[in-house]
Specification:
single chain, alpha/beta, TIM Barrel, 14 helices, 11 strands, 40% helix, globular
C-alpha cells in the first residue's frame, strides 16, 4: 500500500494539520473544485444507500439494509483529523490473544476517548449513531464489547502488550436504544470473542440482539447445540466476514492462511488446530445428522461444498429471532472476505465475487440454498 507518510495528516505540513487553520482555509479556497468533487462523491454514496434501502423495503423486506457501526476509525483519516480531541492518540485498537488469534490482533484503528466523550456530552457518538441509522432498518455494532471496554495497544508494541480501557457502557447503551427507537430499527451486537462477565445479559436487557455463529455454538464437551437450543435473543448465522466460510472451515483454509502468515506461535500450535478442526468436523456433522439437516455420511475435509446445504439448514432452523445467510455461503465460496489481525498478506476486502451482481443469485444451486434457508425458519420468528 501507499506509505502512511504520504497520506497521514500528522505527516502533512504544520499549517494543514488542523481543519480550521488559516493555511487549511486557504487550501480549501484554492482547491475548491477538488473539494466539491469529493463532497459530491459523498452525496452520491449517501443517495445510493438511500435508494438501496427504499428498494429493499419496496421488495417486501421488513428490515432491509443493516448498516455497520465500526469499532474505530483510521487514525490518519478524516474523522481523526477533523475532530482531534475526540480520538485517542498514540494507540490502536485490537484484541488480546485467544484461540483464533494466539498472538492477539492489532486492527490499526483508533477510537473515541471515553473522557472526551463525556466532556462533550456524547455529541460525537450521537452523530455517529445517527449517520449509521440514517438509511438502514438495522445497525450491527462491530465488536460490541467496545461499549464496555476496548483492548488498546500503544504504538510500537505488540497486541499481547495492550490493556483494556473502560467505556461508559450504560450511557452508550441508552443512547443506542434511543436512536434505535427514533429510527424504528433493530440493533445487532457482535458479541464474539473474549467478553466481560454478564455482558451478553446486559445487551439482551437493552434489546440488542447478539450473534450466534455456527462454529461457536458448542457445549463445554465440544458437542454442537441443536437448533432449538440457540438463544432467541440473537441473530443466527453460518459465519461472519471475519471467520471462515462453510467450505473454508470444512477444509481448514483459515488455518492454512494463519500458518502461512505466521499468526500461530509455532508449527506445533498450527498442527494442534488442524487436529482440533478434525474433531470439530466430526462433532458438527453428528449434530447436523441428529437435527435432521442431513442423512449423508460426513464429507471429507477436501469436499466442503458437500457440507454447505446441511449447515445452511441447521442455521436456518435455529430458534434465534433472526437468521442471516452470508453471500459467501449462499455461493459456497472457499475464502472469507477478511482475516482479522492482518493488514498485508491476505487480500482483505479485495476478493471479487464470481459473477455479475445483478444475476449472482439466479444460479439454480444458489437460489435453492436461499429458498431452503428461508423455508427452515421456525414459525413465529
Amino acid at each position: 500500500g501507499i506509505p502512511p507518510a504520504l497520506w497521514h495528516w500528522r505527516s502533512w505540513p504544520e499549517e494543514y494539520r488542523t481543519p480550521h487553520s488559516a493555511g487549511m482555509q486557504r487550501f480549501a479556497r484554492d482547491h475548491a473544485r477538488e473539494v466539491a468533487f469529493h463532497a459530491f462523491c459523498q452525496w452520491l454514496a449517501d443517495a445510493s444507500q438511500q435508494a438501496a434501502q427504499e428498494a429493499a423495503r419496496e421488495a417486501g423486506m421488513p428490515v432491509g439494509l443493516i448498516a455497520d457501526l465500526a469499532v474505530g476509525t483510521d487514525g490518519g483519516g478524516s474523522h481523526a483529523w477533523s475532530r482531534q480531541r475526540e480520538i485517542l492518540p498514540g494507540v490502536t485498537v485490537g484484541a488480546p490473544p485467544d484461540i483464533f488469534s494466539p498472538l492477539g490482533q492489532d486492527w490499526g484503528l483508533t477510537a473515541f476517548s471515553p473522557l472526551e466523550m463525556r466532556a462533550g456530552g456524547f455529541g460525537a457518538y450521537r452523530e455517529l449513531l445517527r449517520a449509521a441509522f440514517r438509511h438502514a432498518g438495522g445497525v450491527r455494532v462491530d465488536h460490541a464489547m467496545g461499549l464496555a471496554r476496548l483492548w488498546v495497544v500503544p504504538q510500537g508494541m505488540g497486541p499481547a502488550e495492550g490493556a483494556y480501557l473502560r467505556y461508559p457502557i450504560e450511557d452508550m447503551l441508552r443512547l443506542l436504544a434511543l436512536e434505535s427507537h427514533r429510527h424504528r430499527a433493530i440493533v445487532i451486537g457482535e458479541d464474539l470473542g473474549t467478553l466481560p462477565q454478564g455482558f451478553q445479559g446486559r445487551m439482551a436487557d437493552a434489546g440488542i440482539l447478539g450473534m450466534r455463529v455456527l462454529w461457536f455454538e458448542q457445549e463445554p464437551d465440544g458437542a454442537y447445540r441443536p437448533p432449538h437450543g440457540w438463544s432467541p435473543d440473537a441473530a443466527a448465522m453460518t459465519t461472519t466476514h471475519d471467520l471462515p466460510t462453510i467450505v473454508g472451515w470444512w477444509g481448514g483454509n483459515d488455518i492454512e492462511w494463519r500458518r502461512k502468515l505466521s499468526l500461530f506461535p509455532d508449527d506445533a500450535a498450527a498442527d494442534a488446530e488442524v487436529a482440533r478442526r478434525a474433531v470439530d468436523r466430526k462433532a458438527l456433522w453428528a449434530a447436523l445428522r441428529a437435527s435432521g439437516a442431513t442423512t449423508a455420511p460426513e464429507p471429507p475435509a477436501g469436499n466442503g461444498e458437500a457440507a454447505v446445504d446441511a449447515a445452511i439448514a441447521q442455521v436456518g432452523s435455529a430458534a434465534c429471532a433472526l437468521a442471516i445467510l452470508p453471500l459467501e455461503d449462499a455461493l459456497a465460496l472457499p475464502e472469507q472476505p477478511n482475516l482479522p489481525g492482518t493488514v498485508e498478506g491476505h487480500p482483505n476486502w479485495c476478493r471479487r465475487l464470481p459473477g455479475d451482481a445483478a444475476t449472482l443469485l439466479d444460479a439454480p444451486e444458489v437460489a435453492r440454498r436461499i429458498e431452503a434457508f428461508a423455508s427452515a425458519r421456525p414459525r413465529g420468528t
